[in-house]
Amino acid sequence: MDQLPGGYWDDGGRLHRSFELSALTGREEELFLTAGQGQETASLVTSVLSRCLVRLGELSPVPPSVVRSLLVGDRQYLLLRLRQLTFGDDVRANLLCPWRDCGAKVSATFSLSSVPVASPQERAATFTVPLDDSSVTFRLPTGADQEELSALATTNEAEALTRLLTRCVVGSPVDGWSSEQRARLEDHMARLAPHVEQTMEVACVECGRTFLAPFDIHRYLFGELRTDRELLYQEVHYLAFHYHWSESEIMSMPRDKRRTYLTLLGDAIEVLNGAG
User: Cα–Cα distance between 145 and 162 in angstroms, integer?
Assistant: First the structure.
């Protein structure tokens, strides 16, 4: 059974890590196509995971408030697994070699199961670490923090970071901290948080050199779904026209089941056309 690299601490002090995900259905795909264009990423992640996270530890169903309270790294891990359920394990990326004397187009393929995921050795709802002559207690950033600060982060990253630390630190104002103190706390938070690797190593077939390319699971998953807008409605129309199913019945199907029926239907039509 799959487990979150970090985990969710409920109000009773219990840690929930095991989880069950359901694949995206047409309804979630439509959510990306409609709300996704004007909805900031963190809120969209909460909406989608709230629909697809069937169980988290002893919690079922999992309310949006819990999904919002999950650690950032755990939410990334769930998106990674959701992408595997929906599109499979392999990812293709079209890149440009960054070396100045090359610049060739590079087509890279890698497996999501090979993406490094770091699980912290220590898990707790809050942590206390020494900082100069005293100590500081803090929690790790969550999806709720991302939702609250995402708009500010696009215009004033430094102020967004200050507000994030203010939200995460317990009982200690951070306004008067030095840049060194903040950096040390950020290091502590990064070391204790679960982490999904955000880069992949790619080899250029032209020049033979390697380079690191960013891997943003949000961009990959959201981009793949948003490019299928017309295709989704064409599939619904095709199945409704031939099978006389309702839109609700078709949109409740996972993508792979929908595509299976489309393949069977296409084969049947081809046989009928051949017989005629």
Answer: 12
